[in-house]
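User: Predict the structure for this protein chain, please.
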Amino acid sequence: MCNFVYVFCLQNEKEKLTCSDRMPGYAANFGLILFMITLTFSAVFGVIVYRITTAAALSFSTNETTRSNVRVTVTATAVIINLVVVLILDEIYGAVAKWLTEIEIPKTEKTFEEKLILKAFLLKFVNSYASIFYVAFFKGRFVGRPGHYVYVFEGYRMEECAPGGCLMELCIQLSIIMLGKQLIQNNLFEIGIPKLKKLFRKLKDERTEIKEMDTNQSKDPQQWDLDYILEPFTGLTPEYMEMIIQFGFVTLFVASFPLAPVFALLNNIIEVRLDAKKFVTELRRPDTVREKDIGIWYNILSGIGKLSVIINAFVIAVTSDFIPRLMYQYAYSQNGTMHGFINHTLSYFNVSQLKAGTQPENSLFAQEVSFCRFKDYREPPWSPHQYEFSKQYWAVLSARLAFVILFQNLVMFLSVLVDWMIPDIPKDISEQIKKEKTLLVDFFLKEEHEKLKLIESFIARDKQKRRSGTKSKRTRAASFSQCQRSPKGSFTSFSSQHTVV
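Assistant: Here is the predicted structure, written as structure tokens:
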């Protein structure tokens, strides 16, 4: 027996995975996740190249309508391409995240679920918001200036925002991607994919199973046959992921698209009915599992909520013209109005300093142009530090950073204050819970008190029985001793009689 236990312990030690056994899985996870994120950035860069080349090609069109609508055409087609890429990569990343979690070999099912959720959320978060982050914070920031532009592939200038800024383009980008994902991925795929899987499963079973003709069998299929054809339930992770990504669209860039919560509400109203139909008619009955809370999803929601405060602060301060307008109105305007703001944001450039081959071929002006204007805060060409960032640039930049810090801390303080003022459990419900606990404790105390009384009554009865038993023994002994008296009236014991005998 001891030898068997020793061999069993050795087998368990051999089967136990060490850090060196798990290291290849961790390395594969890190490498593939990094590759997938790089793939997402490459797709975004490909769309940027498409915008640049398409805008350059349409600018040389002979059609006047085409040339006048270059920006609208390029923006709309690029956003649609972004949407298609996001939908395709979302499906790929879901399968890759599951495979990466399986090769990592987590210890428990809960650990497996948490790691799967983290990987899938990281990949889908980057995939869904990469192009939006580019438009919000990077587009138009690295174009250079006249005479010193930044070129891609040595022939195409980096794209820049419209004269009014990138806020409108950010709104278009966010609205199309959000509404497209809700309509196609959350609604059409929600019903279409389970139906296709159900049809494929039914055809596969009809081909593989051998049908035996039974005259006694009814023609109508039984309920368990219909339930077996349904698609197996795979968990609530996809449903949670849809809501989390939608929550990101609603909160992260709500300053640029204020109608996002309205569209999210309409989508959720439709989503409830579609999910109800899917769970009732397309999926097998799920196994019930008791859970304390929503688990790691709460931490993800909390992180997105805090990140949204910072991102919206940067959208208001950096992407929009809110801070430059305030700075001009209260610091540079002579009469405290916005009159002259556009002229204030434009800098001068001497056209004679353009590089060879970059001069405009045709001019719309009859006279010769010596200076042109471009949107930036830079020193004029007659300044000793020509074309360097001016004092206005650094003043506006400082005001933007100050606004971000002030906005972030103010919103965080208000959120903590509201969290403190509004408890998680309403007061009436908490009082009702306390009353229920008090009643429960009183009930248990009463039960214990009754049990104690019952035990004491049993003990008292037992004592009475013992006392009555001792009295009866004494009376029997007395009667027995009287029966053993001698004829002369002397009392003799058993022992004395035995010795006499």
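The beta strands are 144-145, 148-149, 151-152, 156-157, 346-350, 371-375.
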